[in-house]
Amino acid sequence: MRAFDWAVLAASLVFIVAYGVWKGRRNRDLDGYILGDRSMRWYTVAFSIMATQASAITFISTPGQAYVDGMRFVQFYFGLPLAMIVLSVTAVPLFRRLKVYTAYEFLERRFDVKVRTLAALLFLIQRGLACGLTIYAPAVVLSVLLGWNLYVTNLVIGVLVIIYTASGGAKAVAHTNFWQMVIIFGGMIVTLAIALSLLPDSVSFGDAVHVAGRMGRLNAIDFSFDWNNRYTFWSGIIGGFFLALAYFGTDQSQVGRYISGQSVAQSRLGLLFNGMVKVPMQFVILFIGVMVFVFHQFHPTPIYFNPVETRRVEASAFADEFHALQGEYDLLAGEKQARIQALLEARRAGDDASEAAAAASIDEIHASALQMREQAKEIVRTVNPRSDGNDVNYIFLTFVLRYLPVGVVGLVIAMIFAASMSSTASELNALASTTIVDIYQRFWKRERSDRHLVAISKAATVVWGGLAILFAEYANKLGSLVEAVNILGSLFYGTILGIFLLAFYFKRVGGTAVFVGALVGEVVVVVCFTASGISFLWYNVVGCLATIAVALLVSLFGGQQGGATAYKITSLPSTP
Amino acid sequence: MTEREREPEDEDPPPFGRSWLVLYAIVLLNLFAQILLFYIFRKAFS
Fold this sequence. Notes:
The complex is a heterodimer. Chain A is mainly α. Chain A contains 23 helices and no strands. Chain A has 2 domains: 3-296 and 404-442, Sodium/glucose cotransporter; 307-387. Mean pLDDT of chain A is 89; it is low at 563-576. Chain B is mainly alpha-helical. Chain B is rod-shaped and about 50 Å long.
């Protein structure tokens, strides 16, 4: 990074932190600190929701995924708009009418304290660990590519977020999320434009898209039904719907974003805007990766994108073998480039036979190139057994650092920081809220002054931020456990969603039945995880349905009915 | 589910569009249009 890049990055960070502290300077009570006085307009709600979900790894990893695997990951989000509608109808008016601070507070009113506490604890465990990863994941990539000290990078990201989140609460989070999304959108548009401008003069946009399509990168829709295929239309619409419903409906880091809306209408509009924009946004991010892929068909490409692992191999006994592999890979790339030019010329001339022959030749060469990449990955794994050989997370930033102009590099790195900080801020605010409302206030200090509650909430934010930084610092030593934590969400979300669906739609089921159903549902999910090859998106469906089914059975045969003793809900919202 | 006591806020129409059902329909149509576009995009260039 050059001086101007540092200036762009520093200016973005200073603006975000200062703006967040300024915006959240007047918090008099929990309503203000946790929910921003329920004063947010729909566009702030919408951008806050999007910024919370889009972590840094989205922008680091997703283009790389498109480079390697094409665009089918976009299907993951097909269920999201459906979930936004369901939540607009059900959760928004209910949470607002009950004036809850957290989603789990609602569960005690509906069932009993043990269901509330179970859900709150599941959230604190799962999100507490994930928060550390939100800091660690981008930090490790930046440290590898830019040579930054990993521990310092973790600390910088974490401390900056703690400063404005602890001092400003939900207002700081929501308003900074808005500007972080502006930075993110700006960075995406600029990166895409420059990626397209870097294509050879003889290759038009249409040519580039044609090459991407011929090489299987435009696979945005797959209507096949395969339980073990992670990304299909069906896993996206069904599995993705349940995941989105669980994440946006039961995870306090998102619930806190939209219940801070000024009104039911503003909260709904925020959710629906997210439903309209999320899928095209992901399409653009993936398309950037596809254009980077096309770019690399005309420019030299490393056989392996992680420079730290590459240097490790070059210092090992496998250096010569690795270099020979890179040399063969470069030769293949040259042949492939010639075939691609022939493909484009045949297409312009309308010569279908030549075009088909060129396409077949490209497929053959590309398959050979992929085999060489696998050999390179195997060498990496041999030299460093702790590495899984996966370099997807380094593809996009390698392109950025090598080919983007000065200033734009700084903007992209600022975009990465913005994405990391926005997600982390929402998570910290949610962790503190749940700790104070569902644990501290519920079990220890029910009647305390607003001033005390705001102060203790700030302290909780700092504590959770500190724990997240500590976990981020330690995550480097965890190896495959990091991957396990990454899928923690899918192991718990289905069960938690089942609890909330029972709360919303099954009036006669009581707390004990739900509690038992949740425990059994969780066991079923763990069995699926350990004993089957089912794609993780289906865990949400399995966990949810198992929780509901068992709870209904227990309720039927156990004879328990009704809800909580203290706060009986006599009505639930119907469709407006 | 018993008869709900409607809160005035729940009844507020959206700032644009005649009712919330219209907005929900727009979101669904938007999703359908995106899926269709992606399908055409893939077919056209693969």
